[in-house]
Amino acid sequence: FAADAHAIWRFAVEQLAVPSERIIVLGNSLGGGVATRLAMELCEQGTPPAGLVLRATFTSMPDAASAVYPWLPVRKILVDRYPSIDRVPHITCPVMVIHGALDEILPIDHGKRLFDAAPLQSVSGIKKRFVELPKAGHNDMAHIAGKEMASAVSEFVSEIFKADQKRESEATESA
């Protein structure tokens, strides 16, 4: 999955010529682990995305699996660990975490812990955001809280691009 995420990123940036600062990475559920890794690696390379949105995802695969299968020794046997909780502190772009309070697969604690582990704000000064959807579960977020979710993401994207426009304007004025 990580290689695929990087291939998609390279396609968008190199083939489609979309600047990295114009791309928001979104990961849902298992995709949140992939998106977190991609965003961290891009930030470490100095080409961060415009933002990262994590929706109904987990702190790590062992945490998620042990909650679902408490009788199995998943922490010892899982190969793919997706340690998002260890990666999110290294992300320098704006971060938004969205989670349903009634998530029956990945309890909201996963989202709250990821949010707590993320930097308070991005290098551009945008504060991290947590959106709790009180009536949503794991697979019904779009049906139960689609408008609320879309509104929150829209506000987040607007803030990112306003900050980007401000930086561009300041750079032009100083040149």
Task: Sum up the structure in keywords.
175 residues; 4 strands; 51% helix
Describe the structure.
The protein is α/β, with parallel strands linked by helices and 175 residues long. Helix content is 51%, strand content 12%. A four-stranded parallel β-sheet has the order 1-2-3-4, with helices on both faces. Helix 6 links the parallel strand 3 and strand 4 (129-133).
What is the compact description of this entry?
By secondary structure, this protein is α/β, with parallel strands linked by helices.
Helix-strand layout with pairing:
Elements (H helix, E strand, L loop, with lengths): L1 H14 L8 E5 L1 H16 L5 E5 L5 H8 L5 H4 L6 H4 L7 E6 L7 H10 L11 E5 L7 H34 L1
Parallel strand pairs: 1-2, 2-3, 3-4
Largest sheet, strands/sense/barrel:
4 strands, parallel
Q: How large, in whole angstroms, is the Cα Rg? A: 17 Å
Helix content: 40-55%
Distance between the termini: 42 Å
Biggest sheet, strands in spatial order?
Answer: 1-2-3-4
Question: Number of DSSP helices?
Answer: 7
Structural class, by secondary structure, is alpha/beta
Poorly predicted ranges: none
Order of helices and strands: HEHEHHHEHEH
